[in-house]
UniProtKB/TrEMBL annotation:
Residue ranges, annotated region (Disordered): 1-62
Origin superkingdom: Eukaryota
Name of protein: Uncharacterized protein
Source organism phylogeny: Eukaryota, Metazoa, Ecdysozoa, Arthropoda, Chelicerata
């Protein structure tokens, strides 16, 4: 089964001109996650899945445990040499 995710090229013309990049860019300060307060009604994922609410106010990095790493190796069906390489890079 193939998925065509690329957009088909279109010919540019007067109603659809070639975009021109701005000469200067302004970078805005990213919102600090500690300051984030979800609005009412936006507590679930963007897919509307009530079973898995999105809790963006307590977002923390997920540290991979050794058993999770072994599960990943198994699921990826990596040969032993590739698993060892990935494991050694994970420890760095």
């Amino acid at each position: 089964q193939t998925h065509n995710s690329a957009v088909r090229p279109v010919r540019h013309n007067e109603p659809l001109p070639i975009p021109v990049a701005p000469k200067t860019y302004t970078l805005h300060r990213e919102t600090d996650l500690e300051d984030f307060e979800p609005q009412s009604g936006s507590s679930t994922s963007t897919y509307g899945d009530e079973e898995y609410p999105a809790d963006l106010s307590h977002r923390q990095p997920h540290l991979v445990t050794q058993p999770e790493l072994y599960d990943l190796f198994r699921d990826l069906e990596l040969p032993k040499s590739k698993s060892q390489l990935l494991g050694s890079r994970h420890q760095q």
